[in-house]
Amino acid sequence: MTAYVRLEVRRALRDTGFVFFGIGMPVVMYLLFTNLGTNAPEWKTASMVAMAAYGALGSALSTGTGIAEDKGAGWLRQLRVTPMTARQVVTGRALTGSVIVLPAIAAVLTAGALVNGVRLGAWQWAAVALALWLGALPFTLLGMGNGYRLSAQTTGLVNVACNLLFSVVGGLWFPAELFPHWLRSLSALTPTHRFAEIGQSLAAGAAPALAAVAVIGAWALLFGAYAVLSYRRSARTV
Fold it and tell me: Measuring CA to CA, how many Å separate 45 from each of 23, 41, 57, 95, 119?
């Protein structure tokens, strides 16, 4: 399974579209958002975490696009005749998604430190990166569920829609404090809002709220069940 994960990671990182949109775009958006308006250090830090979360979200969802393409090319059918079990295949894909989110997170955090002058303690940098890395798991599971259930073209469209919806409503592009009351209430229930909230709390030197952890945990269970059911369905049709 280790060899399988290495293979999938190399395939993802060799994709120029993934490198540009999954890693480069969040950095460009972060620098744009933080250098056209207010110059407040607090905003640069909060936006850094939000854009790193956005990059992780997009990278995690892209796992599903790769699965759908493999399904269409017959790669999943080939995997079923290898000694790898279904659990190993699914786990391998989840681990791949966990690895490929790291470049986007690292790129945005590096831009915050080197370009925008964000200053955090060593433990805060490590804690923020770890929280964003672990918090991306639900979105990897969502992307996997889409990939196993849908065609390659449909998966790409659905993942883009999920990315935009969760990013905007979750307050990754614009602070949720600017939303009307009803939208702020809805935003608080999204995994992206809570995902970024945990990182922003750590960047501010505070402990994450238990409610944020609970919301992300609930979404992880939901998306995990979706991924398992989608894989079982694909096993009957591929």
Answer: 18, 6, 18, 28, 8
